[in-house]
Amino acid sequence: MAKRNYSSEEMNRYFNDPSYRRSLLKRGRGFIRRHRKQFIGLGVIFVGLLVWYGFYIAQGLPSLEKLENPTPELATKIYSVDGVVFDQISTKDRTRISLDKLPQGLIDALIATEDKSFYSHWGVNASRFIRQMVINLATFRAAGASTITQQLAKNLYNLQSRNESVFDKITRKVREFITSVQIERNFTKNEILELYLTVSGLGRGAYGIESAAQKYFGKSAADLTAAEYTLFVGMFQGPSYYDPIRNTERALRRRDIVINQMLRDKKLTPAEVEKIRTDSLVFKTPEAESHTGIAPHFSEWIRQQLTEKAEKYGFDIYRDGLRVYTTLDSRMQRNANRAVEEHLADFQARFDKNWDWKKYPEILRGNVDKMIHDLDVYKKGKTPEIRDSILTALRTNAQFVDSVKVAARTIEVGFVVLDPHTGQIKAMVGGRNFRNFRYGLNHVTQIRRQPGSAFKAFVFTVAIDNGTPVCYELPNQPITMIMSDGTRWAPQNFDGTFGGKYTIREAIKRSINLIAVRAIMELSPPKQVAEYAKRMGIKSPIPPYESIALGSAEVSPLELTSAYGVFSNEGVLVEPVSILRIEDKDGNIIEKNLPEKQEVLSKETAYLMTNLMEGGINEEGGTGRAVRSFFALPAAGKTGTTNDYGDAWFVGFTPQLAAGVWVGFDDNRIKFGSSDGQGGRAAAPMFGRFMQYTYDDPDIGLTLEYFKQPEGIVTDTICVDTKKKAREFCPNKTTEIFNAKYPIGSCDVHTSPFWQQRKENPSKISW
User: Fold this and answer.
1) Distance CA 649, CA 554 (A)
2) How far apart are CA 765 and CA 742, in angstroms?
3) Would you say residue 289 has pLDDT above 50?
4) 3-class DSSP state for residue 453?
5) Which of 143, 365, 592, 655 is 20 to 30 A from 747 via CA?
């Protein structure tokens, strides 16, 4: 309908002639009557739109349960035994801190800058909100007028989404309004402030003031200075835009606004303002280990354990803000990392110099193909033809093949340290790549390899426990055995020599293979050795065959180290433990772990074996002598080397710590190929370095201790040539230790129950 223009005469008549006005009104009513259906239809549509919009708004509001019990995603913090948070598990780096622990100036700065009427409004500033909404509708945009409570509503309940349209933004503002009012009904002002300071993002992956304080300054939010917390308050408006490391000047200008607001509100004096402006900000230097932590393999192992416990306890390890207190000692962990890095740097270079891929084309091809099959681009190939073309292309790609060569010949390591008295795992290096590790093989807990001569300790433990004197001699002569499958087994010594006789003491010190095999044939029945190994903590299957004397059964570094801890702990096995307790975000204990202890050896046998294995470190000709190049305090241990120098081991202990080292390759077809692969060269130096660094560390404070000789151990003098008790004159004498449980006599006479049974009916001994 065309718009009509009224003349001045008609306008005057309208205002001065009542009858004229009534006629116009009747005409308008007639128009409405004639178009009543259209008006009713428009009204229904308008009401329908209002109802729909109301439902639409309601659908995006948090539920009543969420309003009453807000659960922001909180990171699970993993603590070391010395109080360091060395890692966390989360989707967002967020830690809660109570309001009463924060500086009052931080609260003052926040209110002065973000919401001056915070303590007087009921969630929203109504006049500001209405005024801003009118402006938003008029300009078709959405901005401003948010109180602290509204900002909390947006962040806590994820009301804001990416790529919002103007309609979405206006709708979100309405939802923030409604949610803010509900928040104010359910929580006190201090609770609202605490939640706000927990959930708000502050850049670089940090959510909340506590996480930000740790991220930027390496301290708790409780210890922030005025210069630091005013910087954070300024960042709430735009964490990325006001990033103080990337955009320092911009962040400081924003901080000036914060402190000026505090000055106007008389929360700061001019002198205090000047001090804040002149205070220097020292940001935490990002460490190379910051992305993975100091113990990533240990952390991942903790995560796996927590995942298994989640169903039992009903917690979410990524959201519930658990506090996990572990046994790890961050100082010992750094010492372990250092020992591994220093030793392998030179050791890897020597191996690379001698390794020649031309001699092993099949191994290289196998590693190349395996790497290709693990690539996403290969897995996503839709047809066999596409996958074959990818395989062919990468096999001939020199750069790709070179990267495979480097990865395949990388020397791997598994290094673990335990307190044998408590079972607590103090340090764990699960692989060479601990600086960039994400998820991969843990060479302490997830591999099983042959321990070589390191398994001899169990053979001789059985012999000693059966009453064999340590000066007992066995012939160092070749042996050929017919195995159960009909094959011949003819073990040899490491250097290929044989001849003469050696005592048990000398056999352990020099790690003589033929003596160990003789021992399992004559002194330590295989079944009994397997039973002792199991009793002492070996959980891997041990077949009761003579070949286990040379370490043919595969074990993990963790279980072998734990078993050696029995010697240090006077015959008591303490099961390894990594988690001391788990608490919820409020400090309530969910789980608490106590060590499981069991006496598995007599003190006398444990001490005798300790004394024998000290010889391997202390005496000339001992296979573990390399330890003494670094560490001078009391220690005992045993090396292990497998065929063709494939795996190198050293497992040892002091009166306070037990540590095990495995060195080898993920592809066990790759061997060291020279004497460099001996346990005494490849593994023992890491043990020595670690112990030196740890015992020299004043923060750890380990004191000098000696292995305790139990009352059941006695000493006597024997003749070197006859190996008999020196009751009469003999030109060469030596003092030897014995288990007083068995009468001391010559080294070839035994009166223990085992020997008596052998003497009476040797053919019917059954173990």
Assistant:
1) 13
2) 20
3) no
4) helix
5) 655
